[in-house]
């Protein structure tokens, strides 16, 4: 009997693991086509020299990576490190603001009646169907001088009379939060929509305060959605090019803009390739850090439960 149960369990596990492997195929293909292959194309370019036209040439050298670290013919400069940290700060602030706004929005949608949830989700996603450049230009008009937003900022003393919030770092953050907010709301909504509300009711029946119900019952069940949302917002906002370029007014150079410049206005392909690989490497560090933090938080909340 035991052997029959063991065979049945083994067969069931085998079928489940086989289905799991098949489910990974589309994701692995996507990563291979759009992440691994471009990275391997950039990798050899980053180790070449630069010809007079900014294109890769022999001999093989580490000069581009030394330049990324700030070493050039004038000596060492912290400019590149400042750009990297500024881009990280841009991604972190955007992610935190998106999370603070997205959680109550997702909660509101999850608690809405079933027939209205699809409509609310479509309204949330609908602006994303417009090109990001068009949306950036719309915000440039809204944040410019003599608009109701700039008048409100003047009344609060944030800017001088006849000035606008565009171009500025604030305009860049507004544009990034607006662009990536749906990517934070949707995974959190998915977690909240599948929430086990019987645990919430049980905690309330035991006279737990709403804040404790949220911290000890709701939040641990939505950590997966928060993790997905953080990844979907942090990585692209860290490396975003269009919004800082259009709404920042070239006041603060970001990593994405620095890379784009090496392939367009001031060509230096090996330097641009080295910067791109550095950006991908930092993105992997961010992903690993998020995974470790989430694992630690899950273990802690599990211990508390």
Structure report:
The chain is mainly α. Strand 3 and strand 4 form a beta hairpin. Strands 1-2 form a two-stranded antiparallel sheet. A two-stranded antiparallel ribbon has the order 3-4. The protein contains 13 helices and four strands.
Helix content: over 70%
Quaternary state of this entry equals: single chain
* Strands, total number: 4
Structural class label: mainly alpha
SSE pattern, N- to C-terminal? HEEHEEHHHHHHHHHHH
* Number of helices, counting only DSSP H or I runs of 4 residues or more: 13
Largest sheet: 2 strands, antiparallel
Quote the distance from N terminus to C terminus.
Answer: 37 Å
Point out poorly predicted stretches.
none
What's the helix and strand layout?
Elements: H1 2-46, E1 48-50, E2 56-60, H2 63-68, E3 71-72, E4 75-76, H3 79-111, H4 117-125, H5 132-143, H6 148-155, H7 169-193, H8 197-205, H9 210-221, H10 223-238, H11 242-247, H12 255-262, H13 269-304
Antiparallel strand pairs: 1-2, 3-4
Helix pairs in contact: 1-13, 3-7, 3-10, 5-7, 7-10, 8-9, 10-13, 12-13
List the main descriptive attributes of the protein structure presented here.
mainly alpha; 74% helix; two-stranded antiparallel sheet; 4 strands; globular; 13 helices; 305 residues; 4% strand
TL;DR?
With 305 residues, this protein is mainly alpha-helical.
């Amino acid at each position: 009997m035991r052997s029959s149960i063991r065979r049945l369990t083994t067969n069931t596990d085998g079928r489940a693991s086989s289905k799991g492997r098949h489910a990974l195929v589309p994701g692995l293909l996507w990563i291979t086509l759009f992440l691994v292959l471009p990275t391997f194309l950039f990798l050899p370019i980053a180790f070449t020299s630069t010809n007079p036209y900014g294109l890769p040439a022999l001999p093989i050298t580490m000069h581009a990576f030394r330049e990324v670290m700030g070493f050039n013919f004038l000596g060492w400069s912290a400019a590149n490190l400042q750009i990297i940290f500024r881009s990280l700060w841009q991604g972190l602030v955007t992610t935190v603001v998106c999370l603070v706004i997205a959680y109550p929005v997702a909660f509101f949608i999850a608690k809405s009646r079933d027939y209205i949830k699809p409509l609310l989700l479509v309204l949330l996603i609908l602006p994303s169907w417009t090109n990001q450049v068009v949306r950036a230009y719309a915000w440039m008009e809204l944040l410019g001088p003599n608009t109701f937003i700039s008048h409100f900022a003047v009344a609060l003393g944030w800017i001088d009379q006849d000035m606008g919030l565009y171009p500025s770092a604030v305009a860049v953050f507004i544009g990034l939060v607006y662009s990536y907010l749906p990517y934070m709301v949707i995974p959190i909504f998915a977690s909240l929509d599948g929430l086990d509300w019987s645990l919430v009711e049980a905690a309330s029946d035991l006279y737990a305060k709403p804040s404790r119900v949220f911290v000890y019952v709701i939040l641990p069940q939505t950590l997966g959605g928060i993790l997905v949302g953080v990844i979907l917002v942090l990585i692209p906002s860290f490396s975003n090019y269009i919004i800082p370029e259009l709404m920042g007014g070239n006041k603060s150079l970001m990593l994405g803009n620095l890379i784009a410049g090496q392939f367009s206005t001031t060509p230096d392909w090996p330097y641009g390739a080295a910067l791109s690989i550095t950006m991908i490497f930092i993105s992997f560090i961010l992903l690993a850090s998020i995974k470790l933090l989430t694992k630690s938080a899950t273990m802690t909340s599990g211990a508390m439960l």
